[in-house]
Each structure stands twice: as C-alpha cells, then as structure tokens.
Amino acid sequence: MSIKITDWAVEDRPREKLIRKGISTLSDAELLAILISSGTRKKSAVDLGRELLGSVSNNLNSLGKLSVSDLLKFRGIGPARAVTISAALELGRRRNMAELPDAGQIRCSKDAADIFFPLLADLPHEEFWILFLNRSNRVIDRMKISQGGVSGTVTDVRIIMKKAVEWLASGIIVCHNHPSGNMNPSDSDSKITGKIKDAGSIMDIQLLDHIIISGKDYYSFADNGLI
Predict the structure, then answer these.
(1) What is the pLDDT of residues 130-142, one digit of tens each?
(2) Are 106 and 208 in contact (CB under 8 A)?
(3) Cβ pair 208, 227 in contact under 8 A
(4) In this structure, how many other beta carbons lie within 10 angstroms of the beta carbon of residue 111?
(5) DSSP code string of the chain
(6) Beta strands 171-177 and 206-214: pairing type?
(7) If we measure between CA atoms, which residue out of 215, 216, 205 comes closest to residue 173?
(8) Is 120 in contact with 213 (CB distance < 8 Å)?
(9) pLDDT on residue 40
C-alpha cells in the first residue's frame, strides 16, 4: 500500500520531498530537518533547522565549526541529534578531502590554496600542513605537521625538513588556517616562515609560499613579496 503525502508527519515531509524530487531540491534548512527530526511539538524540524542556520548567518562553513556542545544549546536538539549533525558535517568535510583532484603542477598561489581549502576552511582550530613538490613544482604529497588550538599551533622546522628530505622534495609550500577569520599573518607566522626558508636554503629545498586559509579566502606570503 502506497503512502500519501498527507500521511507523513510534518517533520518527515522533507524526506518525502527528497524521495520524490531529489536531494538537490531541498533547502539547507530541510536537509538539517532530516538530521534533526525535531524533539519538540512546539517547533517543527524545519523551523529548528532555520533557527540553527540563522545562528551562523546561514553560513554552512560556520555551521561546520560548531561543536556538539554548541549544538546542544539549541532547544530541541539533544545529544543524539547533536552527534548526528556533527557526524554528517564531518562526513561532508572528509568527502571534500577525498575528492581532491590531481593538483598537477602548482603555477600560482591559488593552485595551492585550492588544495588546502577543503582541509582547513571550516576547522575551529589551527592546523599546519605542508605540500611537497618536485623540481617541476608538481605535487608529490601533502601532510599535516601539527594541530593546535583556536589561536595557534606549534610548528617544528626540523620535522618539516625531515619530511621534505624523506620525500626528496625540491620545493615545499606550507599552509595553516586562521579560525578567527583574520587573514593577516601574525608575528609568529612571519618568524616561522623565515626559519623554514632559511633551513630550506641550507638543504637546497625551496620554500615557495606560505598560505593562510581563512574562511573562503587566503593570504599568500609569496604574492605579497614576503618570501
């Protein structure tokens, strides 16, 4: 026996819409409603999804930075729903990472930034990554060097050089993110860039750029004449 649209509970109707019309027809709030399945009769799942999105100015990148404890602050979202939302957002981030295309040759700062955006753009903490390149500036591999808190991460130049030697890299590009949204390099960013450049010069490994990812934009030390 087929189920009529009117037989669906209000909070389940986005699911019915997805089945009938496809996932691309659902709004962000409706997609969240499927994950939430509201636990309060006073507010529909879609309304709760809209409230959740409104709290981050309808920015999905900002939504991805919310922790489980942040999600639990919303009335109608309990531990199970908070974990479900957090897991779904993390799966989306990992999909972006897994689907990174072959970067090929790095010709400009944007080529490198495009590799790091899926990795770093929506993180609530800082991470420091390195891109290993051969003599033709083609990508050999990428690697996370360190992970820190909201305002910084510790970077060991010796580890960077050790890994670059292991990969027989001729050049490297380093990258980290600023969860605060401020793209400008800090004094410590400038100092570590100088140390990496000097260490690389001794070992004939060129530091080609240091990129700072912040939201949907980036800062390039090379583009700004600082390398």
Answers:
(1) 999 999 999 998 8
(2) yes
(3) yes
(4) 17
(5) -PPPGGGS-GGGHHHHHHHHH-GGGS-HHHHHHHHH--S-TTS-HHHHHHHHHHTTTT-HHHHTT--HHHHTTSTT--HHHHHHHHHHHHHHHHHHHHT-----B--SHHHHHHHHHHHHTT-SS-EEEEEEE-TT-BEEEEEEEEE--SS-----HHHHHHHHHHTT-SEEEEEEE-TTS--SPPHHHHHHHHHHHHHHHHTT-EEEEEEEEETTEEEETTTTT--
(6) parallel
(7) 205
(8) yes
(9) 47
Q: Rounded CA gap, 124 and 183, in Å?
A: 15
Residue 158, token pair as written in the block: 């010796």
Bridge partners of 143, per DSSP, are 130
pLDDT at 103 (0 to 100) = 57
Domains and CATH numbers, the chain: 5-97 (1.10.150), 103-220 (3.40.140.10)
Structure tokens at 201: 């010069």
What is the residue whose two structure tokens read 């990812």?
Answer: 213
The predicted model gives 87-104 an average pLDDT of 68
Tell me which residue has tokens 């992970």: 147
Query: What sign does the CA torsion over 130, 132, 136, 139 have?
Result: negative
Amino acid at 50: R
